[in-house]
# Entry
Amino acid sequence: MFFRMLKKDLADKKRLNIILLIFMCLASVLTVCSAIMLYTNIFGIKADREKVNAADVVIINSRDLGGIEEKQKKLSEWFLNRDGVTELELGETISFRQNAVDFEGFEEDSQALLKDAKYFAYDLNMKHNRVTDMNSQFFDLDYGTIAVPQIIHKYAGVNIGDTVRITTQLGNIYEFKVTVITKDPGMNGHLRLFFNEEDYEVLKKDSPIIEDVYMVKLFEGNTYLDQSSLVNDFSEMKESEAEYIRGYKLDDSYTDQEVSSTLTALMIVFSVLLILMVFMTISFTIKSAIKNEEKELGMLKALGIESMSFNWLFAAKYIAISLFSSIVGFFGGIYFSRYEIKYLTFGYLEPELGTMIPVALITSLMSFIIIVFFVAIGLRRMKRISIIDVIAGENRGERFGKHPGLFLHKMKKINVPFYLALTDLTNRIKRYKFLIFAYTFGIAIIITLLEIYNTVYSSYWIERMWGRPEFDFVLDMSREMSDEYIQRGGSLGGAIDIVNEELREATIPATVGYCSYVTDIELKHNNEIHMAGMYFDCDYISDFELYEGVHPKLRNEVLMDAIDAKKSAIEVGDSISVKYYKYNDDGLTYKEVEEEFIVVGLVDVAEGQLSIYTSDMFEGAAEAGRMIVGSKIDAPDSMKDEYIEQMREMYGQSSIRNKIEEIDYSLSGYGAVYSTILMLFIPMILILMIMVTVLYQSVNMVDETPDIALLKCGGFTNGNVKAWQLIRSTMISIGSSILAILLVNTAIAFGLKKLFFNLGYILNYHSNQDVFRFYIVLPILITVIIDFITYLTLKRVDDMEISKIRDI
# Structure
């Protein structure tokens, strides 16, 4: 009986069944995919690091020309004698400047992420920080081949089969063929090139300068503070050892975590939306089916035929489709999650199949149970059918039982199609709640995605996320020109002073700003130690938008970045103790000091770690780096392009970028990520909205057939009937757009603030809104699309006649 009922239901209303099947399959696939991505974000990082045997700290140390073995032995003993160090491996690497590595078809200065990059050559013999291919499998390399990191594949466009040309330190040139794209969970972002052991030895013989690589594993549960402490203590040996040291603290990659977290969050939201749409679809279609069979069901009830098993025969189609969609979700979710992890995230490996299968199986079963539960809720309507329905007919109370809300004889200037559409929405609004819900959330998600992209890919992101001030242009000299100016000025600060003097002499009202900084200094607050960065000699600090408090004026007053201060329980008015290196009176030597500062304000920028901004009275710190920021032109906006062209004539076309060019240059990575998200989700949402429209119209045309036939008997044309349907569709679309805009600016805005706070960004996130495009043009465009789809579904109106209607 079950299969006979199933065969009948599947043969009936095929278009509706196809849409229902697509809904359920998409919901199941996305739910499984979201579950696997969520598992990867929570548990996968640790599993990835264990698989590649990732070290907690990597220090790359330049070798001296003599006494190499003695120095290695001494440093190795220093590491092993420290508390907390559990493993140590000593390896080696060859470093290459950007101009020594040439990727086929790639312009080196076209990507900010790879500009002035340093590449490191390794063989595959290391036991720690191993790398895998794109399929998360370990690999070997043949002679004459090279493995490049995924970040090079993404941003330099290097693919398998391409040629990489390397110029050694002695000037010899070697070409290698790319055979593997690598994933590097242990040292992601560190540009490692891998070679066959024989090729590596050839490069080594051509490289007088070799660097030691100390890979250190610390105790289980170590923190960023433990890693930074090791690097800082090692750095303090510089004076006695006279070596150049770089420390790499291998915590999670910030960008990769952002991409993975954002994708997971979007998929979870989209999955929930789809599940709700499945629920409403099932409820809507079951309600319509029961209504159409109401007289027959009432007669069966009058005959005493009523049981749970009989009711579930009515749901045979939904059970079969939900079972099929769960199977599709199981396999499809595994496939698409592997695709996302492989291509859209750099620092993550695919979970083992033995891990994904249980997660996918549990999620698929949950999806099936949820859909069956939805069906059970929809079947409750059958209990409300009584014998009286047989007598009263299926349209009892449907057309005349409620007050119409509007009176045609009192609204003489309104045409009938508009009146019918308006009374539908005022008198039977519950009938359209499913459509309104789908349109509202669909439009809201599209607007939200576009606003996020518009925010991330803008100067707002550079200013807030990177703590850089508002700027009109960016000075980015070539390495040769930069070295020349630094030699003339004695430092980067002196070089910038020379540039600013040249601009004044050329009567260009522009100023190149810079800021000094030190990283990984020790900050103590309420007996808790944190690692922080300190910024000083920064003219732009007074331009920062305060989140709380005031700007610092006295020497011992500082600002801090709000999000990291809040997470560390540091408030305005608190006292902090800071250890840093301070110059002695001779201005050459320095010593470590510990001083107290008062936090007088918080700024809403995201630096990635606790950040301290000092006042103009602060003398500065030793071992400071400098960065060029906040370059401004003191002229009307209409004249800024002219001055930028003059500066390009002075320093070269590629050395000066205006604001738009800097956004494209610096944020291309973010733009690529969010462009991919837009291309994935917006078409999917539009397709779902179209399917909802077709689904609704398929059911609605059946339910409204008697009304349409009566209208045509009363002299109304097919055009009048279609106008009624289209006007109602337009009203629903416009109303849903208004609700969507309200939702975006209330609940979603609140949710985004929480999301960006939890991702470690900023406290007071504001979307970069484009009112005209997003709030006017987009809703109009979506309304036109929906009306067009609605119009295509109205062809059946031409065939509806009173003689073809069984019950009126």
Remarks:
- DSSP finds 25 helices and 22 strands in the chain.
- The longest strand covers residues 590-603.
- The chain has a mean pLDDT of 84.
